[in-house]
Amino acid sequence: MGRYSRLREIRRLDPAEDYERIHRSIALYEFPWDYTQGLGIAFLRDYGVPRISELLDRTQEFERAGQKRYDDTLLFGYEIAENGFESERGRAAGRHLNRIHAKYRIPNEDFLYVLATTVVGPKRWIDAFGWRRLCPNETEALALVGHRMALMMGISGAPSTYDGFEKLLDGYEREMFAYAPANRRVASATLRVMAGWYPRSLRPLVTRLLLALLDEPLSGALGFPIQPAWVRAAARRALRCRALVVRLLPARPRWWPARPRPRSYPFGWTLDDLGPHWAAGRPLEPLHDEHQGRHRSSDEQRTGGRTGGDGSYRASSGRK
After folding, report:
1. 186 or 282: whose pLDDT is higher?
2. Is residue 7 part of a domain?
3. Helix 61-83 and helix 88-101: axis angle, to 10°?
4. Which of 94-108, 201-215, 250-264, 275-289 has the lowest mean pLDDT?
5. What is the mean pLDDT of residues 178-206?
6. Which residues form the ER-bound oxygenase mpaB/mpaB'/Rubber oxygenase catalytic domain (predicted)?
7. Residue 143 included in any domain
8. 219, part of any domain
9. Is 69 exposed, middle or buried (0-12, 13-18, 19+ CB in 10 A)?
10. Number of domains in the chain
11. Phi, psi dihedral angles at 235 (to 5 degrees)
12. 121: domain range?
C-alpha cells in the first residue's frame, strides 16, 4: 500500500455514511500517535475550567492513580472507535462511562465542551504536527463521530460540523477559562504522568517541552509560566522533523492497526477494570437511546434497562 493510498480511499468515501470507518483510519492507521497526542492536549484543556478541574481534584483520581486515569480515558475511546457505536462492545463501553458520570451532577455545557476538545484537539494537532493535514472528509468524520457520541450519551445541543465544534470550544474557553489552584494541581499530576514515560534524567526537559506546546490562554488558566520563544520554537521544530520522517515511512498495513499499550494493564483489561475503583460496585447506566426503548437486549428487558457488572459486557481479558 502506497503512503497516500488510504487518503485516496478516504476521499472516495461519504463521511455521512462512513464516518466511523474514516475515524478508524485516522486513529488506528494514518495518525495513531498524533491522534493520541491531540487527545492528551485535550485533557489539559479541560483543566483550564475551574468547575471541571475542581470536580476532578475532589476525586483525587489523578493524584492517587494518574496513569490509570489517563489509560482509562483513552481505552474507553478506543473501545468505541475500534468496535463501532452500534456494536455491543462499543455500547457496553458507553454504559460504563454513564455509570461513572452518573455519580456527579455535571452540566450539559461541560459535557459539550469536553466532547468538543476530543474533536478539535486531534484535528489541530494533526494539522500542525502530523505528516499531512486532514482532508475535508476526515475533518467531517471527526465531527460526526463527536455528534454520534453525544446522541449515544444523551448530551444535548452537540454540533454536527467541525466548524460548529470549534466555535463551541472557542466560545466556551473565552467565557470559562480562569486560573484556580485546582487547575494547576490536576494539570501537574497529568504532566507527571506524561513525563514519567521517559527516563528520570529526561523528565525535566520533557515537562518543559510539554509546557511549550500549550497556548497562552491555556498556560495562564493552568497557572504555568509561558515558555521562552526559543523553547516553543524548538518543540515545534522537533515535532515537524518527526512528521517529515513519518511521511517517508510506508503506510500501516490493514492487518496491523495501532493498538493501545496501557501501562496500567500490561496483561490486558476488561471494561470493568476501567474507571474508579468504586464504579464496579454500581449498576450500569443505560444509554440515552436505551431509555427510549431502542437496542434493548432480552437481559436488559428483564432487568429494567440495567445490567450488572458481570461478564455480559466484559471485554476480552487480553489485548486484541
Report:
1. 186
2. no
3. 150
4. 275-289
5. 94
6. 61-240
7. yes
8. yes
9. buried
10. 1
11. -65, -45
12. 14-252+269-313
